[in-house]
Amino acid sequence: MVAKRIIPCLDIRDGQVVKGINFLGIKEVGDAVEMGRRYSAEGADELVFLDITATFEGRKTFAKLVEKIALNINIPFTVGGGISTLEDAARLLDAGADKISVNSSAIANPQLISDIAARYGNQFVVCAIDAKNVDGKWIATTHGGRNFTDKELFSWAREAQDRGAGEILFTSMDHDGTKAGYACETYARLSEILTIPVIASGGAGNTQHIVDVLTEGKADAALAASIFHYGEISIPELKFQLREAGVNVR
Predict the structure, then answer these.
(1) Residue 130 a catalytic site member
(2) Cβ atoms within 10 A of the Cβ of 243, count?
(3) Which of 34, 42, 89, 149 is deepest in the core (most CB within 10 A)?
(4) Handedness of CA 237, 242, 243, 245 (dihedral sign)
(5) Which has the closest alpha carbon to 127: 145, 147, 97, 153?
(6) 159 phi and psi, to 5 degrees?
(7) Among 130, 176, 212, 220, which one carries the catalytic annotation?
(8) pLDDT in tens, 86-112
(9) For this structure, is 94 an active site residue?
(10) pTM, 2 dp
(11) Contact criterion met (CB below 8 Å) for 106 and 98
(12) Out of 11, 51, 88, 212, which one is annotated catalytic?
């Protein structure tokens, strides 16, 4: 059985790590390089860096900050935010990113997924989907959750897979930052209809929530931010508890 992954997420605004609830009330929580170094040393399986206002502000992701983080970690590193062309992807891969995460730009131009996958391989492309449950239907959003689209979570995830995405990173806007648990039923359904890994994001508040999404939710990886950033649990302790619960982790 493939080991489940634990992935801390660094949401970046103005070069600092930030966190909010339901994509609102954003507050600074620390230095990106220091936090990346700490999570790598503690045994995180991967690190995700998301420049959360790059698309909204119409600018590119901070390549120099990406380079600094990459030099201080020794785990796979996914970078997203403001990536709208092959050149953007190339610049970040050159800066030290191992994977590229596309979200708003992929919805505006789905061919971008195909183009990046064709040049660099499926394993380099993560399609991030920020979705909100509206009247029982999961609707994908863009620009950091500010704009609703005509894309529905499951059909868009399947299209992204067909276009060459190697992973889907789905964040439930309804659960983000609440620490009330993941949308496990939705992750289970997503995992059942896809053949590529699903990364669960939004709602981690304790070990049991992560156990649930990796078992009942059938997710391949659990992404979390608040519980790590605020020191509520360390990665070594989390992995110990996951093993005790029968979850296969590295």
Answers:
(1) yes
(2) 11
(3) 89
(4) positive
(5) 153
(6) -65, -40
(7) 130
(8) 999 999 999 999 999 999 999 999 999
(9) no
(10) 0.92
(11) no
(12) 11
